[in-house]
Specification:
Helices cover 90% and strands 0% of the residues. It is an all-alpha fold and 72 residues long. The N and C termini lie far apart (74 Å).
Length: 72
Amino acid sequence: MSQEIEQEKQNGFKFFRYVKESITEVKKVVWPKRPDAVRMTGFVLFFVAIFALFIYGVDSVISLLFNFILVR
């Protein structure tokens, strides 16, 4: 019984140490300036939109081909 309590205490201390070390590491991060973050977000949204249109086009072509083969 005593060993179980000790194990739980050690696990609790490990968790708090993990949180403390995580906060320390986050403070070391060099965050981008707002204009850079906005520009990078714009690039990501642009490429996601282009990729989505590409996937839609390929899916439409494949769907048409399957319908043409199966209806025939």
